[in-house]
Each structure stands twice: as C-alpha cells, then as structure tokens.
C-alpha cells in the first residue's frame, strides 16, 4: 500500500536548514512561516503554499503560532498513483503558489480529520495531492481571476485583520469594524472578503474564535466557561455547541 507521511505541525520560531530525499508539500491554515530555497524566499500562510522537490536545500522559521500541514512524498510512491507522473512534474522545481479558497477550506477540513483519525493519514494525503494537482493543472486558466483576487488582497490585508481579531476575540465584533480597518464600505468589504476567503466575515471570525479556543482547551487548565468568555461566546452552552459543530467533538472530550 502506498504510504505518505502527513503531519499537522506547529513550526517553532527557530531557523532550520536542511534537505531530504523526498518531495514535500507545505500548506498552512493559520500563522506564518518564512521559507527560503534556491534564491526564492516567501512567507507560507493560509494564502501561500509551497512545493519542495526532493534533495533541494531549504531554510525555514515559523512564528510559533502557525498551524501547518506538512506532507512528505517519497518519489517512488508517486508512480503507483493515478496521474502519478503528472503529479511528479509539479515537483520539477521549487514553487510557491497561491492557495485558492476552495483548497484552503479543504486543508482546514483535512487537518481536522487527520487530528481525529491519524490512521487515515495515507488516504488523506492522496486526496490532498489529487486536489492540489487539479488546482495547479487549471492555474493558467485562472490568471485573470487571480489578478482580481490580488487586487482585493491588497485592500484586505488578511494578516493585519487576523492580528486585530486575535486582540478582540472577547469583544462583540461587527462587519462594520472590519470594513473600517480596510477603508471599505461594509457591503463592498463583505463581497470582497467572501471572494478572497470563500466564507463570510462573520463565519471567518467564528472559525478564528474556535481555533483559538481549541488551543486553550487542549493546552490550558482554564475552565470551559472561562475559555468561552475569552473567545467571545456569551455562555458555555453556546460555546460547546459551536465547538462540537465545527470540530465534531465536544470540548470536554477534546480536553
């Protein structure tokens, strides 16, 4: 059976420099990792992914708060995959690429699935590779759309919005506040934000609240009621219901 190594990692804020004898796919759901290889240097974020060919030297440094999906791909195992030779060509050279909203949503879903069912990492890895191939195969057809997204992205500085949100998770957050940060009207902001991320602003805020809550649930001794308050829920009951819907597990069980 084909075997791939898939890990959900938090990359520490320390510089690592190495190479390895397998290809690697790097996708992030939150946070930032600085990555450099062969003269290219970019930030791996929820909007930018990276393909690292086998034996290519690279350096990286995380921010300590990233959530990063790392897929190790032994070259010999690609040959037995459907369209394996086409997927292999994706790794002809080092490559950074724009992560579209659909792929970002899939990455979120598969990251959660991996945490709940580690034994399915091989099946999840194959699904992720096929999705990536389908997207990158169609990439030239999407140039015009990507130019539009980049223009929107310049107005919607998502990293700045994330930083603001992280400081105000306990507050009542309104679309009007987020729009003002980007100097846009609420209606225009809402449309642009959905085009860029694939979700509404309030759905994005809810997701960020829950992602932060999960870190506190798993790595702190705070009560669930206290955590609910810290991430902006009015009571523990509504927090627990939202947590269970999103992660498919109750916070008490996740702890």
Question: Mind explaining what this structure looks like?
Answer:
- This protein is of the alpha+beta class.
- Helices cover 50% and strands 18% of the residues.
- It is built from twelve helices and nine strands.
- The strands form two sheets. Strands 1-8-3-6-9 form a five-stranded antiparallel beta sheet. A four-stranded antiparallel beta sheet has the order 2-7-4-5, with no helix packed on it.
- Strand 4 and strand 5 form a beta hairpin.
- It is globular, with a radius of gyration of 19 Å.
- About 5% of the residues have low confidence.
Mean of all residue-level pLDDT scores: 86
- Quick one: overall form? globular
Residue runs with pLDDT of under 50 for 5 or more positions: 140-152
In the sheet with the most strands, the strands line up as 1-8-3-6-9
SSE class:
alpha+beta
Keywords:
single chain; 255 residues; alpha+beta; five-stranded antiparallel sheet; four-stranded antiparallel sheet; 12 helices; 9 strands; HTH_AraC
Concise structural overview:
The protein is an alpha+beta fold and 255 residues long. The protein has twelve helices and nine strands. Strands 1-8-3-6-9 form a five-stranded antiparallel beta sheet.
Strand-helix topology:
Blueprint: E1 5-9, E2 16-18, E3 23-30, E4 33-37, E5 40-44, E6 48-52, E7 58-62, E8 67-73, H1 75-78, H2 84-89, E9 95-98, H3 101-116, H4 121-137, H5 143-155, H6 158-167, H7 175-181, H8 186-197, H9 201-219, H10 224-230, H11 236-247, H12 251-254
Antiparallel strand pairs: 1-8, 2-7, 3-6, 3-8, 4-5, 4-7, 6-9
InterPro entries: AraC_XylS_family_regulators (IPR050204), Homeodomain-like_sf (IPR009057), HTH-like (IPR037923), HTH_AraC (IPR018060)
Domain HTH araC/xylS-type: 159-255
Pfam families: HTH_18
């Amino acid at each position: 059976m084909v075997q791939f190594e898939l890990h959900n990692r938090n990359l520490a804020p320390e510089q690592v420099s190495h190479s390895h004898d397998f290809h690697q796919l790097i996708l992030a759901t939150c946070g930032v990792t600085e990555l450099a290889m062969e003269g290219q240097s970019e930030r791996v974020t929820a909007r930018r992914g990276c393909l690292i060919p086998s034996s290519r030297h690279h350096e990286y440094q995380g921010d300590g708060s990233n959530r990063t999906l790392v897929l190790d791909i032994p070259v010999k195992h690609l040959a037995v995959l459907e369209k394996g030779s086409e997927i292999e060509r994706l790794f002809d050279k080092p490559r950074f690429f724009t992560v579209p909203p659909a792929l970002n949503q899939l990455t979120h879903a598969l990251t959660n699935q991996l945490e709940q069912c580690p034994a399915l990492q091989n099946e999840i890895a194959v699904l992720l590779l096929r999705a990536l191939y389908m997207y990158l195969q169609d990439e030239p057809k999407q140039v015009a759309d990507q130019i539009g997204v980049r223009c929107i992205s310049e107005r919607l500085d998502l990293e700045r919005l994330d930083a603001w949100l992280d400081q105000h998770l306990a507050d009542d957050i309104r679309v009007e506040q987020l729009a003002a940060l980007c100097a846009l009207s609420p209606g225009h902001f809402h449309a642009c934000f959905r085009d860029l991320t694939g979700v509404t602003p309030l759905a994005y805020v809810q997701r960020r609240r829950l992602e932060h809550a999960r870190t506190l649930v798993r790595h702190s001794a705070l009560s669930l009621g206290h955590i609910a308050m810290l991430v902006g829920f009015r009571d523990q009951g509504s927090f627990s219901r939202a947590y269970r819907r999103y992660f498919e597990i109750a916070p008490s069980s996740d702890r």
